[in-house]
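Below: protein 1.
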Amino acid sequence: MTITKKLEDNKLTLALEGRLDTTTAPELQDILIPAISEAAELNLDFSDLAYVSSAGLRVMLMGQKMAKAKGVNLTVSHVSEEIMEVLEMTGFSEMLRII
């Protein structure tokens, strides 16, 4: 998986490309945790994300909880139909702000 960071006007976007699974979830965690302190808004851009596993969902949930605790607005954007189906089946579509 490739993660690209872009900071613009106190909004940090993390663009994910590839698969968010057991192998790559720790990489996202290592970038996401410090990113929560870098900007007032944080967006996870799923434009090029092909797959998400339960390990990836766990990191997203942890990030959402940490962001909320620090007053950071966390959003998820450009979610494909396949990944949206996973988010809906797991209830994550109710926990995350998807735009």
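Below: protein 2.
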Amino acid sequence: MVDRRTPNVVFPSLSDRVAIITGAGQGLGCGFAKGFAAVGAIAIIAERNGERGEAVAAEIAAAGGKARAITTDVADPASLENMIAVMTRSMARELGRDGITVNAILPGAISTEIQRKTVTPEQKQRIVAMQCIPRPEVPEDLVGTVLFLASDASAFLTGQALTVDGGATHT
């Protein structure tokens, strides 16, 4: 069986681009960081837990990707300023006069290594049963969507909210 969660599409427009991913030391953010690195982007792991961020950066580097961990607390403006002050030239180049597109991804209930004590096994089963694709959603299920939105392939797509939930909202 082919694992369709791993994109087989090449995104040449992402090569050596800088992608800042907050909360990338675990869960969904970690999946996004690995996805960006896999297509040649430089993943900036903006993570409050410095050790987790460094571990993800090391894992990406070991797989041949480019990544840098920057301890960042998104609730602290000074911490955000420090994180941004680090790829400024890269950010200016990226955003410049090319225009900015803004889109959102609305994921379903994501299964990650983070234990959700407030969600019972029965609730998890009900969530999966509501979906058209009856299996738990994992971070890798969103990577292709994120890469598409970050690439030139979506340069004329803006102001959209894409629901990626295995069809749960269609039932």
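The mean pLDDT is 81.
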